[in-house]
Hints:
The chain is α+β, with helices and mostly antiparallel strands and 459 residues long. Helices cover 47% and strands 22% of the residues. The strands form four sheets. The chain has a six-stranded mixed sheet with strand order 8-14-13-16-11-9, with no helix packed on it. Strands 3-4-6-5-7 form a five-stranded mixed sheet. The protein has a four-stranded antiparallel sheet with strand order 10-17-12-15, with no helix packed on it.
Amino acid sequence: MQWIRLFLSCLLFESIAGSLAYAVICCRKRFWREENYFLALAVRKTALLMYVIPVTFAYAYFSRVSWNHGNIIYSGDFVLGMCPGMYPVFGILGILWIGGLTAAISRNRQRSAAVSMLLKENRDVRRRDCRKIFLEYQKRFPKAGLSFYQNHSLCSPVSVRRGKRNMILLPDRAYTEKELRILLEHEANHIMAKDLLWRMFGIVILCIHWFNPVVRRQFQDMILYQEIACDLRSSMDRPWYTKKEYSMLLAAQTTADLYPPPISAFAEQEKEIIRRIEIMAKVKKFEPLKKKTLTAGCICLLGISLVPSLAFASTAAELQEAWMNAEAVQIEEEPQDWRDESVEEHGTADDRVREISAAEERVSRSISTFEKTVNGKTRMIFKTVSRSKGDTITLSSQCKDESITYRIGIKNTDTGTLTWVEGQGSMNHTFTIKTGGSYSIYVENRSNQSVYIEASAVY
């Protein structure tokens, strides 16, 4: 359950980080006019990456982990802590997330099946002039792996990626040479810019962060800017057609939004087409930014958005620690039943824990004390006694470092069965012997660092 809590916390932290990055983008767009659409697309891709790169979670986690002479020291309960009240809460949240993820994956599988059915209608292009122009584009983009088909089920030209193949599909109608060059230029630029891969990546994020409504709007915004950037690449300074001719064909191809996101359609919604044409008319020259400028812009976005994201992650981790500490105080205030067997746990020896003996010489007295430093991942036996069925062994212990989790318990040396209680600070418990035999009394340090423990046993 502890790992479920950490995973859900990580998911929340990164969802907030990605949403805040998009909020920064929207604020800049609102107050300053966008001057370069390639930079606008780059920062939107960067904002999507923040949904899967656990920067904020790593900050909250590793700020509580340190090294001391080769031993890992944990500070704060966020890393390893858990309290009873968290079990049902994070259990329900985990079930809800898995349910939403399953539903999102199911929806996308249905869309993928619809695309597969669409691809079954593909037919080879028979017109020689069309194949001749397509061969030119295959030579221009040798690494793109382009395939060319006609499909009577389509309303608008699209590009689809299946495995390593990039397919350009045209509706089953006649195109002039100029129109064909416009369509092939547009779809080839999508493929070379890896827009289809980014859309597939966006769908994965939509499935994982299905609970965040901002992600869908952010994903649709990225698709729009992919189309704008592709229009600018495809329409500027081309010898085969003018920008006006490109815009006219774009307007003529306007259809309803019939295609799922993994497909890149030449034209879909009328409102977006109008905006794309207005931007093409406004931009006079194709000037993509240099990689250094794009990198600097993305770094600035990360710097601005990570400050509140890291503050949120740190506060959320502290709230979880406060929750654990509050329940720990409530439990300590209640009178403890030393004979409550419901707190006992049973198991066999863990190979990751070393077992050593610090036993005293056998004496006839019924009290044994223990005061030693116990190394990390070590079980230290300090007394072995013979007990009959129904006898009791009462253990009391004190660990001054209350952040350390440790165990006190008894071991049946005949069967190797361990019975213990686990906790921090002070513990008291009475074990009732179920089967007569020889029993070893032990203290076990569950952490990775050494700790001083005082214990006593009455039997």
